[in-house]
Amino acid sequence: MKNFVFNNPTKLIFGKDTIITRLRAELPTDKTILVTFGGGSVRKNGVYDQVIKTLEGLSFVEFWGIEPNPKVETIRKAVALGREHHAGFVLAVGGGSVIDASKLIAGAIPSERDAWDIVLSGKITEESLPLGTVLTIPATGSEMNSGGVISSIETKQKFGFSGAYPRFSVLDPTVTFSLPAYQVSCGIADTFVHVMEQYLTTTGQSRLMDRWAEGILLSLKELAPIIKEDPQNYDARADLMLCATMALNDFIRIGVTQDWSTHAIGHEITALTGLTHGHTLAIVLPGTMRVLSYTLKREKTLQYAERIWHITEGTEDERITAAIEATEQFFRSLDLPTRLNEMNIGREVSDEIVRRFAERDVKLGEAGTVDAECTRKILDSCY
To answer: Kind and range of the H or E element at 32?
Structure first.
């Protein structure tokens, strides 16, 4: 196990009716609150009304229009609004995209740097405005981590950055009942791959981290068909919401190596085509495994095959193949196509991703072996 320092300062407020009963106590009474929203689904599911009722008597201003895969061009408008009203607190109401964008907004309002320059630098170094969240879509884990991913329409690029942790996050599983099935499936895929990026590396690092990660993967396996059959099953929705949070709140990465090559490739696909982030991961992860699981990730894939899919018979190569096929079939059971050509994504997209990685001299993965050439092999296997 590697040396580590673990500190997650986000207060998690979880359960039914927590927006109405718990949010007000977390909000400042002496600052103007910039409340950020996405495209309007919160008006349909009742979240907007609950939040506005909670804000009665406080000073606040609303910003609408943060897109899925949030764009820096939109974020600049929110920053300008926050500065105009001298906002001293940001409340993000939505899914991971709204929260990611709000982390950048909270960092950019008091900064002299342009929002995209902050993203390109990789980190908010200035003191951010305090941030709270009301989560509506379980997927990214952004409600309990410091990371964010932002796109640029102008450059067709998508990069991650590190900002401030939310001071608190309110999670009410009932607000997820009305989510479209595709959005739920992409959230499950996103959560699954978050775990795999931290788990599918090398063996012998931490028994505890392995078991925690495997617990989330097994839970997702069980929850997916339950939610598909009964979308209003509260306990299943609550478990899924907590799985998504625990998958990326630093908890399962303590003292172990990480990969993140699948995410890096997926981000490029989204930037170039607009395909939903979680869906790109359902396509790329099996490809990453097809290229790396027989060599670099061999021992861990065999462990994964046995513990997650109960694959114990056959040669080692046969078990690895079966595990990859089981993983791809799991994503297909979510009604997510798992090949680039199924989504009408041509070879020119792969060519551009490889060109970009070569230009940046990218070396991804736990061992730094996923370069442009390896990325080409991964993408070729996704057709």
So the answer is: strand 32-36
